[in-house]
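[job 4471] stage=fold_predict status=RUNNING
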Amino acid sequence: MPTRISTATTVQADQLPQLHSERNTAMPLDMDWVASVQANTSAITRRCATLPGRRSVKKAHQAAWLCKAISLIDLTTLSGDDTEARVRRLCAKARQPVSPDLLASLGMTGLTTGAICVYHDMVETAVNALSGTHIPVAAVSTGFPAGLSPFHLRIQEIRESVAAGAQEIDIVISRRHVLTGNWQALYDEMTEMRTACGDAHVKAILATGELGTLRNVARASLVCMMAGADFIKTSTGKEPVNATLPVTLTMIRAIRAYHARTGLRVGYKPAGGISKAKDAITYLALIKDELGDRWLQPDLFRFGASSLLGDIERQLAHHVTGAYSANWRHPIG
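[job 4471] inference complete, writing structure tokens
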């Protein structure tokens, strides 16, 4: 049986309830729990290998899933040649991610992306461009992407991004703490970063492609949640290996275990390498299977992506017209 969100695409997205999960209030580091965490790599890999074929959706069901995916995208530009004009164009795309004629054909209004994600220097530009909307600005911080700048500068960068108007901060952890098993150092680092974020939600980027094993990924996920991370995120998008289904399954099962133990919901953000609409549907199906419908909301799930939106818009155009359009007809920024 295919997984379904809805057969109906007619909905006013701006009239949907804006859900806000209670923030992760953290807990003391529980080393016994951390040490007990394991990851059965072969079983995880087998589960993920069968998922795309078993979770196929078509026609109106697919259109509904894709519109949901758009509402969960952190539309991102993290290039060395970013300009204020590019960021303003990206913000315009976040406000109107799908052409008005396609939305009208789908019976939808008010659809936006989940957030805009930029470097610190572009936070103020993005905040101004999104004024009057509910779309938050996320800033990558703490010496992104390597996280190897002096610690006091990483903390100051967080504070300056929050002062500039960022409502979400994507921080990078020190990978060496995971690779050497120094869980106390990772917990202390994450705690201080969470404090520096204040009211801004914090997404902890684990850089899973550089952590060596799925067991390390599971333990790092748990420690960051114990220290107060509101989201855990796979990657910076700059590593050789970014978001994968096995990493995703490992991380969301850590989220499920944390919720079962504490009652607190932590969000999840896969980032890097998710560029096709069919892949987005697979990720959403996995979240629905493992965590349930509550996690299919932007306060608990995001895609970190730039080119994904273009492919989704092409698929929606095919749903409406029966023909695929050229990429240039759906510019991102």
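[job 4471] summary: The beta strands are 11-12, 73-76, 108-109, 115-118, 137-140, 168-172, 201-205, 231-233, 267-269, 303-305.
[job 4471] exit 0
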